[in-house]
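comment on this one:
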Amino acid sequence: MKNMENISLSQVQAVYSGPEGRLWELIMGEQIHIGGFASSMDLADKAGIGSGMEGVDLCCCTGAGMRFLVRFRDVVRMQGVDATEKVVEQGRRRCEQEGLSDKIEFTLADVCDSGLADASADFVWGEDAWCYVADKEKLIREAARIVKPGGVIAFTDWTEGKAGLTDAEAERFLAFMKFPNVQNLAGYNDLLEANGCEVVAAEDTHRFSPHIDLYLNMLNMQLTYDALKIIGFNSELMQAMGAEMVFMQELAHAGKIAQGLFIARKKK
């Protein structure tokens, strides 16, 4: 696992409380994760998440993943946990506007110390967000504590790819994304097993490269004005951010970063 020592939770909160968060939603949609709806459906299919189940979304952001699960997987109740007040407030408004507040609740808390009850969920869910959590061992421990015996932990995340990052590449990538570290497939596999789970899947989705190509094409071919408006029409900042995204594109095509998919079942 590659680490960046000086990235803190407050920096992540600042991203999703400000223009960077709005920029990510512009190019990735309300479901701010690689692959959007198709990725969510794939994860839910492979994890067996369906009718009548109750789940917890750790790092839920505005709750788009929870709304997906309630609408398209017939999940009866979702509890989201996120540490950024602004996105939690926005998520509550969106759920109310869509008439889903009776099925979806939010908790403003550190996902490593959520305060939720032991063995209270049929599944724990996450989509491309656990990369923002510094203590991944504590996060996985919390997920395993919350899920019922026999229940499922299902998540995707940005991971180090099979080709691996050099220290210099990792430093640049983590600094731009405000990730305190980036885990790899084997690392998450080991953490899940160490916390009493049987790993069903730990694999590269191979979605990263084509999707970052898409995001850059959208910014360059269609959404340039919209993106500039979000960042105060600062052309220099736009060019700098574009250069970092091109760097990520190069890393993705070289197999150095990836979207990992993980499904584990808590042992009874």
